[in-house]
Amino acid sequence: MKIISYNIRGLRKGVKKATIRKLVKKRIYMLCLQETKKEQIDKVVCQALWGDSKVSWELQLACNRAGEILYVYGVNKLSNWRRSSMAMVSFIWMASGFLMAKKGLDERSAKEFNEWITDIEVEDVPCVGRKFTWY
């Protein structure tokens, strides 16, 4: 199961939308976008990102749009998965929000946060000689 979390820092540019569509083609289950900075998120926006009319989304708002998180997922994919693992969906939503909240960590807190990531067995995708972890 592939779930991608991406701090997009603004969704206005076509390059970012094209990157998201490439990620979705990797047959992911859910896409978590942080800081879309869009004034309006609706079905049209989510369908364009997901590349399918059968899409659902949730939007978690934050102050000044700086920490908002958009969750986009295919209706069929997640509805099947949701039946067997609703607790996992709740965890993903909580974890992606937690990751955004921990952005300005001091060194000690960062160490504790990395230990938490290890404890819950979430994989930190290596950069493999690149500046960022995306494809």
Would you write up a description of this structure?
- Its cofactor is Mg(2+).
- The protein has one domain (3-119).
- It has helices at 14-24, 43-50, 75-101, 107-119; strands spanning 3-7, 30-34, 55-60, 69-74.
- With 135 residues, the chain is α+β, with helices and mostly antiparallel strands.
- The model has no long low-confidence stretch (mean pLDDT 71).
- The chain has a four-stranded mixed sheet with strand order 1-2-4-3.
Question: If you compute it from the alpha carbons, what radius of gyration comes out, rounded to the nearest whole angstrom?
Answer: 15 Å
Mean pLDDT: 71
Distance between the termini: 17 Å
Q: Label the structural class.
A: alpha+beta
What is the N-to-C succession of helices and strands?
EHEHEEHH
Beta-strand residue percentage: 15-25%
Helical coverage, percent range: 40-55%
Shape: globular
Largest beta-sheet characterization: 4 strands, mixed
Number of strands: 4
Q: How many DSSP H or I helices?
A: 4
* Count of domains: 1
Side-by-side strand order of the widest sheet: 1-2-4-3
Low-confidence stretches: none
